[in-house]
C-alpha cells in the first residue's frame, strides 16, 4: 500500500467482508437452531415445556424491543452478534464505559423476567 489512506480503505473493506461472512454464518446457525427446536417432538420435551419455552422467547423479545435504542443496539451487538465490548464501542463510536453502562441497564431490565423464569423452573423441578 502506497498511502495510509489506501491501507485504511483496504482494511475497512476486508473487515466489512469478514463481518458480513460472520453475520451470514450466525444467521444460518440461528435458522438451524430454530428449525431444530420447532422439529422437536412434543412427547420428548413435553408440550407444556415447549409452550413455556416459546412464551419465554416472546417475553425476551419484548424486553429487548422495550430497551432504549442505543441500549438495544449495544445489547444485540454484544450478546447476539458476540462482539466484544471494545468492538461494540468502536462500531458505535462510543466509549467502552458507555457500552458497559448500556449492558448494565439492559441486564437490569431483564432481571424481573430472569427471576420469574428461574422461580418457575425451580417450582417445576420441585414438583417433579
UniProtKB/TrEMBL annotation:
Keywords, A to Z, come to:
Sigma factor, Transcription, Transcription regulation
Query: Is Transcription regulation among this UniProt entry's keywords?
Result: yes
The record's listing under InterPro entries reads: RNA_pol_sigma-70-like, RNA_pol_sigma-70_dom, RNA_pol_sigma70_r4_t2, RNA_pol_sigma_r3/r4-like, WH-like_DNA-bd_sf
Molecular function in Gene Ontology: DNA binding; sigma factor activity
The source's domain of life comes to Bacteria
Question: Matching SUPFAM superfamilies, A to Z?
Answer: Sigma3 and sigma4 domains of RNA polymerase sigma factors
Spans through the membrane: none
Q: Which GO terms describe its biological process?
A: DNA-templated transcription initiation
- Sequence ranges assigned to domain RNA polymerase sigma factor 70 region 4 type in this UniProt record: 58-107
**Name the record gives this protein:** RNA polymerase sigma factor 70 region 4 type 2 domain-containing protein
- Identify the taxonomic lineage of the organism of origin: Bacteria, Pseudomonadati, Pseudomonadota, Betaproteobacteria, Burkholderiales
Amino acid at each position: 500500500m502506497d498511502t495510509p489512506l489506501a491501507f485504511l480503505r483496504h482494511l475497512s473493506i476486508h473487515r466489512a467482508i469478514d463481518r458480513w461472512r460472520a453475520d451470514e454464518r450466525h444467521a444460518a446457525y440461528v435458522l438451524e437452531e430454530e428449525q431444530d427446536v420447532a422439529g422437536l417432538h412434543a412427547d420428548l420435551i413435553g408440550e407444556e415445556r415447549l409452550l413455556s419455552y416459546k412464551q419465554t422467547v416472546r417475553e425476551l423479545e419484548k424486553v429487548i424491543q422495550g430497551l432504549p435504542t442505543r441500549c438495544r443496539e449495544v445489547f444485540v451487538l454484544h450478546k447476539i452478534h458476540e462482539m466484544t465490548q471494545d468492538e461494540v464501542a468502536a462500531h458505535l463510536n462510543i466509549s467502552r464505559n458507555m457500552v458497559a453502562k448500556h449492558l448494565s441497564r439492559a441486564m437490569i431490565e431483564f432481571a424481573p423476567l430472569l427471576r420469574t423464569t428461574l422461580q418457575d423452573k425451580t417450582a417445576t423441578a420441585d414438583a417433579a
